[in-house]
Amino acid sequence: MNTNEYYINYLTEQSVGVEAMLKRRMSEITSDVPPQIAEAMEYSLMAGGKRLRPIMLAEAARSCGLKNITDTEIYASAIEMIHTSSLIHDDLPAMDNDDLRRGKPTSHKVFGEAMAILAGDALLNHANEIMARHVSENTEPRFAKAAYAITKATGISGMIGGQTIDILAEKAGLDIASEELLVKMYSMKTCALLEGAVAAGAYIAGADESVVNKWRKYALYIGLAFQIVDDILDVVGNESVLGKPIGSDSENNKPTFVTLMGLDGAREYAEKYTDMAKSIACELGNAEFFLWLADYLCKRDR
Ligand code: GRG
């Protein structure tokens, strides 16, 4: 087995573990909850996906020397719930208006718009609820730091702020597009949650701020490469492999790296950020998985 096959198998094994962990979280929801909201939450949460954020969180913790990986479970579950909540809202008619996500009809197509809004709200809130409960029962600062890293990454200076820039940019159309704007938008909309994932993992392992900051930098660079590849796949990807429609950026008149600098230019940028991520992974040490992951994400087709 070569290195690539080894890590692809490893990623598959880890995502099976994440699925089981998320199932456990859903089974902890008490029976007094209206079943319709639990069903809509579970539909999107268990619809597949790469499970990148929880895997990165646990792997960062492992790289930083954490022995008891179950310490990361609540935070890894929470970050996937938050990510899924953002996908549900992103697909709504008021946002990207997409019919397909993770190879399945989007939440609003199955449950209606009102229930999809609530399912997104519910996953976001449930993530915060399980982290707050864990922090209140385990008062070591490393857990509070992890919860803060994740909630801040989600908020107005992170993902929600980035989505705000995205919506405004879409309204303004392609005229306002610049490399600076796109980098700012992607850093907040996409990279922040990846940064939150590795920072939370590193904090849980007891890493200090200087190490956490290096992890954040790694995630920023792979996040930029990841999002630029997303722009490329929206033009040249295969819908059945991607599990979502292509062409939605140009339909929505969205400025992207491809509209700004063409396919070849966008590919060059994705490679540049991948190399930057790899050089931070080398500095971090004990991060072979992350070295491989940077290349894997840059070459992905889904
Ligand atoms: C409800 C918390 C909340 C936020 C609402 C809609 C919104 C604000 C933010 C949208 C953020 C967003 C969709 C950013 C794009 C990030 C991205 C590249 C998503 C795709 O991630 P993958 O490829 O998806 O990891 P899978 O399906 O594999 O998990």
Describe it.
A hairpin with a 2-residue loop joins strand 1 (100-101) and strand 2 (104-105). Helices cover 75% and strands 1% of the residues. It has a single domain, classed as Orthogonal Bundle (Farnesyl Diphosphate Synthase). The mean pLDDT is 94. The protein is mostly helical and 302 residues long. The structure holds geranylgeranyl diphosphate. Geranylgeranyl diphosphate is lined by residues 49-50, 52, 82-83, 85-87, 89-90, 95, 102, 120, 124, 154, 159-160, 163, 189-190, 227, 230.
Topology (SSEs and partners):
Elements: H1 3-27, H2 35-45, H3 52-63, H4 73-91, E1 100-101, E2 104-105, H5 107-111, H6 113-137, H7 141-154, H8 159-172, H9 179-204, H10 209-236, H11 239-242, H12 248-251, H13 257-284, H14 288-298
The protein binds geranylgeranyl diphosphate.
How would you sum up this structure in a few lines?
This protein has helices at 3-27, 35-45, 52-63, 73-91, 107-111, 113-137, 141-154, 159-172, 179-204, 209-236, 239-242, 248-251, 257-284, 288-298; strands at residues 100-101, 104-105.
| Count of DSSP strands | 2
What small-molecule ligands were found? geranylgeranyl diphosphate
Amount of beta strand:
under 5%
> CATH class, anyone?
Mainly Alpha
> Major sheet: size, sense and barrel closure?
2 strands, antiparallel
Looking at CATH, which topology would you report? Farnesyl Diphosphate Synthase
What is the share of helical residues?
A: over 70%
Mean pLDDT: 94
Unreliable sequence segments: none
Oligomer designation: single chain
Across the major sheet, the strand order is 1-2
Q: Any idea what the shape is?
A: globular
Radius of gyration: 18 Å
Order of helices and strands: HHHHEEHHHHHHHHHH
CATH architectural group: Orthogonal Bundle
Overall tally of structural domains = 1
Compute the separation of the termini in Å. 23 Å
Structural class of the helix and strand makeup? mainly alpha
Number of distinct helices: 14
Name the CATH homologous superfamily: Farnesyl Diphosphate Synthase
